[in-house]
Design a protein that fits this description.
PPIases accelerate the folding of proteins. It catalyzes the cis-trans isomerization of proline imidic peptide bonds in oligopeptides. This protein has a domain of about 110 residues: Chitinase A, domain 3. Helix 1 packs across helix 2. The radius of gyration is 29 Å and the shape is elongated. By secondary structure, the protein is α+β, with helices and mostly antiparallel strands. A hairpin with a 5-residue loop joins strand 1 and strand 2. Strands 1, 2, 3, 4, 5, 6 and 7 form a seven-stranded antiparallel β-sheet that branches.
């Protein structure tokens, strides 16, 4: 009777293989988060019914899911090969990720392990396999943690240097919260308040120039309540008015801190170029502006 471990491992392997394409696509296509949750993650897709632009050739249509290639004798044969190819890609990507952590596994031994398992002649017992994999998992986690901590330290050091250099530029000022800013155009009217909705265009980059967000490229400005974004924005945008333009250099503690988010590593200093297009004051509640019960209305006589 097969052990539970073997059955579980096989099920997990099959699941990994069948989901490889989706997992890899999600990893590579994950966009950096916008300033708030309502921001579009990417430019809208083109209308499927729209004709291709002049001078371009439309991509060939994908083959039907049940089509059998002339390289295979049957759909079952093709499915078996596809499953193996998907599993192979997953394992190859796993090996490459582990190499980034300084861990290099022998690909020939990995393939030999798969072949021996199918031939039912494994060189290791189930208990040895389980113990080996648990030890390896712990090693990978330890290496990944060390890499993350080193990267966080490097990001903090690079951010400190960038902010120190930026602070020396002419016209640069600092908010009480530590956000550095340079006003290119003040704008007109009143400064936005925490409860106002602002409409902005912006570009966000890391200190190495990597762009993680850009409303200009999306072709659509962003609207959000000022107190609904990272603290650096809430504080920094109060330095301009409608029509203003400002450059913000935000330390990690006023942005995404020690954890970061997808597209923005831990301890990252963020640079934003922001245009404040409009300010929409918060709507007043029906009771706002009315006198309280112990306060007379304007113009009312007070008895003596």
């Amino acid at each position: 009777m097969k052990s539970l471990f073997k059955v579980t491992l096989l099920a997990a392997t099959m699941a990994f293989a069948l989901n490889t394409v989706h997992v890899l696509a999600a990893d590579t296509a994950a966009a950096a988060p916008a300033a708030n949750a309502d921001a579009p993650a990417a430019a809208p897709a083109a209308n499927a019914d729209a004709p291709a632009a002049a001078g371009t050739t439309a991509a060939p249509a994908a083959a039907p899911a049940n089509a059998v290639s002339d390289k295979f004798k049957s759909s079952e044969e093709q499915a078996a090969y596809a499953l193996g190819a998907s599993l192979g890609r997953y394992m190859d990507n796993s090996l490459k990720e582990q190499e980034k952590l300084g861990i290099k596994l022998d690909k020939d031994q990995l393939i030999a392990g798969v072949q021996d398992a199918f031939a039912n002649k494994s060189k290791l017992t189930d208990e040895e396999i389980e113990a080996t994999l648990q030890g390896f998992e712990a090693r990978v986690k330890e290496a990944a943690q060390a890499k993350m901590e080193q990267e966080a330290k490097d990001n903090a050091d690079k951010g400190d240097k960038y902010r120190a250099d930026f602070a020396k530029q002419k016209g640069v000022k600092k908010t009480p919260g530590g956000v550095l800013y340079k006003v290119e155009k003040v704008g007109t009217g009143k400064a936005p308040t925490n409860t106002d909705t602002v409409v902005v265009n912006y570009k966000g980059t890391l200190v190495d120039g990597t762009e993680f967000d850009n409303s200009y490229k999306r072709g659509e400005p962003l609207s959000f309540r000022l107190d609904g974004v990272i603290p650096g924005w809430t504080e920094g945008l109060k330095e301009v008015r409608k029509g203003g333009k400002i450059e913000l250099v935000i330390p990690p503690e006023q942005a995404y801190g020690k954890t970061g988010v997808p597209g923005i590593p831990a301890n990252s200093t963020l640079i934003f170029e922001v245009e404040l297009l409009d300010i929409k004051p918060a709507a007043k509640t029906p009771d706002e502006g009315k006198p309280s019960a112990d306060q007379p209305a304007a113009g009312a006589e007070t008895g003596k």
